[in-house]
Design a protein that fits this description.
The complex is a heterodimer.
Chain A: H1 2-19, E1 32-38, H2 43-61, E2 65-67, E3 70-72, E4 74-80, H3 90-104, E5 108-111, H4 116-129, E6 133-135, H5 142-149, H6 151-154, E7 157-159, H7 164-182, E8 186-192, H8 195-210, E9 214-221, H9 229-238, E10 242-247, H10 252-261, E11 267-272, H11 280-283, E12 292-295, H12 307-320, H13 330-347, H14 352-360, E13 363-366, E14 369-372, E15 381-382, E16 389-390, E17 392-396, E18 402-406
Parallel strand pairs in A: 1-4, 1-5, 5-6, 6-7, 8-9, 8-10, 10-11, 11-12, 15-16
Antiparallel strand pairs in A: 2-3, 12-17, 13-14, 17-18
Helix pairs in contact in A: 2-13, 3-4, 7-8, 13-14
Chain B: H1 2-30, H2 37-53, H3 59-85, H4 89-109, E1 126-129, E2 132-135, H5 136-158, H6 160-170, H7 172-177, H8 182-204, H9 212-229, H10 234-254, H11 260-274, H12 286-289
Antiparallel strand pairs in B: 1-2
The chains are: A alpha/beta, B mainly alpha.
Chain lengths: 425, 290
Amino acid sequence: MKRYTWIFVIFLSFFGLVIGPQVPAAPAAQPIIVGVPTSLGFLEGKEGLRAVEMAVAEINAKGGVMVGGEKRPFKVESIDIRDAAPGVPVPEALLGIEKLILEKKPTALLVGPFRSEALLAGMDLIAKYKIPLIGSIAMTPASEKKIEENPEKFKYVFRSSLDVTGWVGLLVGTMKTLNQKFGFNKVYLMNQDVLWARGTAKGMEGWFKKSGWQVLGHDEFPTGSTDFSSGLMKTRALGAQILFTCFDMPQSGILVNQWKSMKVPALMTGFISPMAGQGAWKTFHGKIGGLLNAVFELGNIGAVKYPPATRFHNAYKKKYGKYIEAGHGPAPSYESVYLLKDAIEKANSLDADAIVAALEKADRKGVMGRERFSPGHQVIFGVDPAKTATGCFFQWNEKGQRIIVYPPALAEGEIQLPPWMKPAK
Amino acid sequence: MFWGTVVYAVVNSVSLMLVALGFNLTFGISGVANFAYGAFYIGAAFLCWIFLNTLGLPYLLAVIIAVLTTTVAGALMYRTVLVRVRGQSLSEVIATFGIGLAILELFRYLGFIGFEYTLPVFEDKSFMIAGVFIDMQRIFIVIIGSALVIGLWLFTHFTSLGLAFRGIAQDERTALTFGMDSDRIATLSVSFGAGLAAIASTVIIPLGTISVSEGYDVLIRALAVCIVGGLGSTGGVILASFVIGFAERFTDTYISSHWTMIVSLAALLIVLIFKPSGLFGKQKELEERI
């Protein structure tokens, strides 16, 4: 009997050590595919994808998304649709989105097109395949209008980032502050000739005129422009106090260099993408002091008065070794993953219509503030992160620090005029 | 405002000339339309950035090594690829375009995306000229651009290698009978063209940032200037640069910056309609060919 016991033990040991590990484990939960079709060759797209991957890694580390009684991990599939590159036609970008949908069969799409033109054209494609999209770069409010006009068809399109309407709101608040504090009321507008920037400049021009400001001129520069001297000469000659800017192309850094070298005595205020990140101080050799620039969503910049934004900002740096440089895109891309996770868990299904219904009811306190969708499927932006998602204006000081100056709920300091400028009152 | 516009138009014209000189030199001598030109331009800037920021070399040394490396890369491209398709224009265009695409997209793939890639200006000062402030870097562009044109003229008129360049450009078969090695000269012309792209890049890029997409824009601008001026004609390139350069800045100031990009393309179209060989083009006019 003892002999049989030993044989039994040896057999079990052999089974456990050699055969045991070869017995297939319980099948791993099937991943939920999230597609990221965007312009990966541009900063906003590249950092947007990284932010999505960061959120996915966090969620997967906690087991994944609870759906149908099991926890399933997210898996990211990305494609570079190059819609931000000059000269790339919109249909080519849409082909990239369609390829991702057909080949990878994602449950949802995140980040999405860079250019508003591509987003608008892509809405029909999204409607055709009925896949929820939470965009976080393209900014046109026209998408919201389309959704409100035909909700049944376009209900799959959402946006977690700031749109032009919210951006104009942020600008108006800052301009009012400049007017009240310094008496400035003469403005020259310069913008990139793309849909979102045109929309912003047009909206602001209307507001300036209605509010009694003098609009001294307005120039639109095609994408890829490398000389802004004519606009700057006019700004100087006409005596503008504010130089309003709206650009997202890499070449827009030249505008700031020229503004400095031509000693244009107007406060540059608006959005120039290369100026948004912490690295801009080093990149532009410390020559950007005084510049007022926007960051479209909290989290892309840390905020003393809103710790979740700082936590995300620092966590990104810890993971990737570099701070976020884009002023637009990464934070809402990160939040999109959590919004999607919450919606899937709430719907307890991967069905597109169920996810859409859950997204419409989303109410999350995230890194940008409180995040809820409007009837046009746009995350509502305002000036207090306790109530809405929030962007901000900061000013580069001469020590190379970004000081948030607007909105008041987040302000870390007051707007300071550069030494070569005087208040008008 | 008028004189200010003239000052910036001169700078713009010389920038265009700098950008187009290398492309024109290569085509004028060897007949190779180097569509990898924009990639050499951006490649040189990235190399300079790497030498400066990663290896910590002094700026001047970084610029010199970047220019020399790009010059060698141009020669290598000719000896390894172009020599096999020499004389087949379409194959040359496809080969160089493919190489350019591969170089540019490799930089993108390697993560050279973002705004942190800049080169410092040579000297951080600005001066008042004709009632408008202009920075020292733009003055350097004008000085270096003018020096390059004069240097090229002296090189092609007073050195044996330069005379060989002109000999091959004028009549390759006759030059061969005089013992000139056309493959060697073609290698050098592609190489010098790449080197000129690198010089243009290290002088112009300190005004802005280095971005992959700029490589494609530079190629289009170089092509537009060369076609308007007449492919292969240095005088034509200079004239075309000034025509386009002035037209762009005056359009900016007196019409609308919205139309600036169209100026060079419109010039291209008009010249192609009325003078298909370009302003100073040496190739046969359409009617002559027929």
